[in-house]
Write a structure and sequence with these properties.
Strand content: 5-15%
CATH topology of the largest domain: Rossmann fold
Largest sheet: 5 strands, parallel
CATH superfamily of the largest domain: Response regulator
Order of helices and strands: EHEHEHEHEHHHHHHH
CATH architecture of the largest domain: 3-Layer(aba) Sandwich
């Protein structure tokens, strides 16, 4: 799974690389983040530059435009997250996808490749800074309703996905129920209410699901639930176990 801030690291400002082919976007985002005490350690105008900047500066988070000339943000995300998985001495940042449209098949593909979430380019300054800090902490940046619409529009059942996301039989019955509800866009508070659990217990269930399926975060868990056929677009919510 992706790297999380270790002891002491959470006390320092997040380190960010901004990858976007529009200079005004990079400048605006850099000013917003700097005003919130976040260090922008590199910039890039395409995917190739983004990969090089990450390897040079070792950021915590990459703000990655999905559509850039040459190597696009999707391929750059695949290279960054694929190369860093489990390889000794490699650095795996968290990736937030930047897009103009909330229903974009490339955004879905980037989430499937391991990106931790996405932001629309008209994001407010407060939301941008909060998103960087949230993802740096190891969480996923999910707007549940938008993510669910993305998945339902673009996800297809793939018989190879069970291998990719490991065997769902490793999960307990309760973990399967939590994964199903999580994939439908429910927040931790909603999951806690549905299953009559504390939010701390819900977080424990989610952490165990991610560990067992070897997934980075909730974004990948949502996609795994659809691609493995645990739920299908438009299917009704299963009743909870007693």
């Amino acid at each position: 799974m992706g790297t999380q801030a270790g002891p002491g690291e959470a006390d320092r400002p997040p380190r960010v690389v901004i990858a976007d082919d529009q200079a005004l976007v990079r400048t605006g985002f850099r000013m917003i983040l700097a005003a919130d005490g976040i260090d922008v350690v590199g910039e890039a105008t395409d995917g190739e530059e983004a990969v090089a900047a990450v390897r040079r500066t070792l950021p915590d988070v990459v703000l990655m435009d999905i559509r850039m000339p040459g190597m696009d943000g999707l391929e750059a995300t695949r290279r960054l997250l694929g190369a860093g998985t489990g390889a000794p001495g490699t650095h795996t940042p968290r990736v937030i996808i930047l897009t103009t449209y909330d229903l974009d098949q490339y955004v879905y593909a980037a989430l499937a490749a391991g990106a931790s979430g996405f932001l629309l380019k008209d994001v407010t300054p407060e939301h941008l800074a909060a998103a960087v800090r949230l993802v740096r902490s190891g969480d996923a940046l999910l707007a549940p309703s938008i993510t669910r619409r993305l998945v339902e529009r673009f996800a297809t059942r793939d018989d190879r996905a069970a291998t990719l996301h490991r065997d769902l039989s490793a999960l307990t019955r309760r973990e399967l129920e939590v994964l199903e509800s999580l994939a439908r866009g429910h927040t931790n508070a909603e999951l806690a209410a549905r299953f009559r659990l504390s939010e701390a217990t819900v977080k424990t269930h989610v952490a165990r699901i991610l560990a067992k399926l070897q997934l980075r975060d909730r974004a990948q868990a949502v996609i795994a639930a659809y691609e493995t056929g645990l739920i299908t677009p438009g299917s009704p919510q299963s009743p909870t176990a007693p």
